[in-house]
Structure formats: structure tokens, C-alpha cells
Amino acid sequence: MFRRVELVRGHWDPNDAVGDFASQVPAAGGIATFVGKVRPDGDVEALELTHYEKLTLPGMEKLADEVAKRWQLEGLLILHRVGEMFPGEPIVCVSAAAKHRRAAIEAVDFAMDHLKSNSWFWKREKRAGVWAWIEPREQDHSDLARWKD
Amino acid sequence: MFRRVELVRGHWDPNDAVGDFASQVPAAGGIATFVGKVRPDGDVEALELTHYEKLTLPGMEKLADEVAKRWQLEGLLILHRVGEMFPGEPIVCVSAAAKHRRAAIEAVDFAMDHLKSNSWFWKREKRAGVWAWIEPREQDHSDLARWKD
Amino acid sequence: MPVTLVFLGKLADLAGVDQKQVEGPLDWQGLLDELHGPLGSAARQDRTRIAVNGEVLADKAALEAENGDEVALLPPVSGG
Amino acid sequence: MPVTLVFLGKLADLAGVDQKQVEGPLDWQGLLDELHGPLGSAARQDRTRIAVNGEVLADKAALEAENGDEVALLPPVSGG
């Protein structure tokens, strides 16, 4: 299985990454992708994602292991931006290639739920020049609960 | 809501289409995408998708109406190739842009299930120089049943 | 201008043509009279649908086509 | 080389620094003695986790760090 799991430290284009990924998985019948962006929500001026070197990327690798174990994939791409970014900029890109459609879509869905609520990222937003840390959201925990066996 | 629903008649790059689509939905927090290709399965030499002018595209438009009614989207892209194509070539691309992740992913999942089993396409494959029509698959009907209220 | 019959998918193979003109008016029995052998059997199958000018009939036995109409014979879609 | 404390997320704001060196060995009580005011309260919260050299402790009260170790204080991740 082709696999690419990385932290992205500067400006990037997830669409290019997905194009490269697609060329690596010629045997796949389908590729599902999710790209998350900094929502241009009213008054958010900037967003900063902090990570912890010793946990964040290793945690993403473990997540990739689990996704690869649960679904039969031809390829898996997990890219997550860190640092300071602005509304409209991409934060995360997950892409899964599989022989069958459902496997690809479910793998992306699962990886996104876990990246969002169970990965070592701390997020703060700047509004009106003031930074504030984002607390966990209840929605993320209910998203995650969907995958409990 | 931005919306693009089309039949594609020649060679195409879904990744370019998704890139264009993304630029049309600046307010979206996330974009989910599925791209289906002609599976390079052993001995399939070519695949031909027949459509019926008076039903196929109108049916895809109706499907887009239903998706837009069920989920709050910023944009919806449904592209489906017709004609003769070869293993590895893209057949279908569905992309949904939404404020929230789950809406985008579910909209794509729903649209794919309905495109695959409930749209006016007839498919035949060429193996060892001989064309044969593809019959409906049971799996498609069970995929579709997931969405019944 | 007569009624145009349009054959989709494998029905085009069975008909040997994609389209055929027949004189209207055309009802369900009249259509079956035009379709011989395996093509007639395929048309009778429950899962084969009929559309008139792009409207799929709920009950194909209710077919009533006039000259100028387009009658499409639709086998089950392929899926997958 | 002493123990390195690493403060993540809002704990870095409360600490006023991202990192701090303290003399080992360091157990849970020793760590709390280093963390004053709101930082100490945040560290005590159930949802704040502790990692030693990249291994998250199941029970943070079992902390046993030696000189050279890196002890990270991890508030709840942000999600969304």
C-alpha cells in the first residue's frame, strides 16, 4: 500500500497533493478525499495549530496503521498543516484509494473523525487582534463514538 | 449554492475539475470528493457507458436537487463520463462543499450510491475483444437501501 | 413524422439498431407487435421500463404514443 | 542535563514559556511543586495528560522522570 503521512509547515495546495497521490495508486477503482479549510467565519483573522513533535506525527502514523488495518486500501494520504494560517487556507487533507468505493469513503470519514478529535493538535484563533484557545467540541466526541465496535 | 452537473464526453482530469470547483466555494469549511475510475481488473480492455439524452442528465440534475435539499451545501459538483474509455481512466467525480465536514462527506456518499445504482447509464465491458453488458449488482441495491427514511 | 423507438443498452444489441421508426398511434400491444423474439421478451420483463418523450411510465401497459413521440425502451441500469 | 518540561496549547500561555528545565528526578508531586497558580490547577485536571519522552502516561500520578527526560503537559486537544 502506498502511504504518505506528513505535517505541512507552510502554504500548500491539497489538490496538487491529491493529484500526486492518485498517480501513485493506479490499481485503485476509486479515491475519496476530504480537504478541510480555515472557515472564513466572520471575524476570525488567523488560526494557529500547535503540535508536539514527539506525539503528533507518531499519532498520525498510528492512525494510518489503524485505517490500513480496518479497510483494504491501495493508498492512504494524511496531510495536516501546522503553524499560523489564514481564513480560506487548507488545514487538512485525507485521501484514501481502494478497489471499492465504500472502503475509500469510510476510511476517509474515520480518519477525519479521529484527526479532528483524537490527534495532538492545539488550536487558537485570533479575533479582533486577540488570540484565544479553542476548547474541544462535543460534536467531535459523538463523531468518534460512531466508530466504536 | 454553486452547482455544476455535466456529462463528460472525452478524456478529462477530475482533479482539475475539483480544483476549479474549490475556487468557486470560498465559504466552505470542507470539500469531500469521490473519483471513480475504470478498474484495471485483469482482462478488461475497454468500457463503454451508454446514456439516454432525454433521461440521463435530467436524472443527474434531479439527484443534485435532492442532495441540495438533504444537506446544507456551499457547492455540488457531479461529473460523469460517457462513451468508450480505458482502464485507469476516470468515470465519475462527485464533490460537495459545506460548512461542516459530515454534510460534505454524506452528500458525496449519497450521490455516489444513487449515481451508481439509480442513474440512467448502461455499461458494457470488452474482454478478449468481446463486448458484454454489465448487469445490475446486488451490492448497489443494498448501498441504496441505507438512505431510505 | 412517425413514432421513434429508441433502444438502450443490450436492447440495442437485440434490436440490431439504436432507433427505429414506426407508424403511430402506438399502444403497448402495438409496440410488442413490433418487437420480435428476444427483444419482445426483454421488453416484457418487469425491470424493463418505457419512457415517452423522457417521461418514464409507471405502468408501461398504459403506453399511448402518437406520431412525433419518442418511445425509449430502458433495460435495468448497470450499476457498479 | 535536567528534566525538560514542555507546555502545550494554553498551558504554554499559563506558564509564560514553552519549555522549562528542572532538576531531576521528578515525580508527580515534584512536578506540581514546580507549577504555580492556574498552571498547577490545569495540570491537576483529569483531561490534562502527561507524556514522558513521547509516551503518554495512563496515570499521571505515576510520573517518574530522570534528568535528560522530556516531560510534556498536554491539555485537551482542540478538535473541530
Q: What CATH architecture of chain C do you see?
A: Roll
Q: Roughly how many Å apart are the termini of chain C?
A: 38 Å
Strand order of the largest sheet of chain C: 2-1-7-4-5
Number of helices of chain A: 4
Task: Please state the CA-atom Rg of chain C, rounded to the nearest Å.
Answer: 12 Å
Please indicate the count of domains of chain A.
1
Strand content of chain C: 25-35%
Strand order of the largest sheet of chain A: 1-4-6-2
CATH class of chain C: Alpha Beta
Low-confidence stretches of chain C: none
List the helices and strands and how they pair.
The complex is a heterotetramer, with two copies of chain A (149 residues) and two copies of chain C (80 residues).
Chain A: E1 2-8, H1 14-24, E2 30-37, E3 44-51, H2 56-70, E4 75-81, E5 83-85, E6 90-98, H3 101-118, E7 121-127, E8 130-133, H4 138-145
Parallel strand pairs in A: 1-4
Antiparallel strand pairs in A: 2-6, 3-5, 3-7, 4-6, 7-8
Chain C: E1 3-7, H1 10-15, E2 19-22, E3 26-27, H2 28-34, H3 37-44, E4 49-52, E5 55-56, E6 64-65, E7 70-74
Parallel strand pairs in C: 1-7
Antiparallel strand pairs in C: 1-2, 3-6, 4-5, 4-7
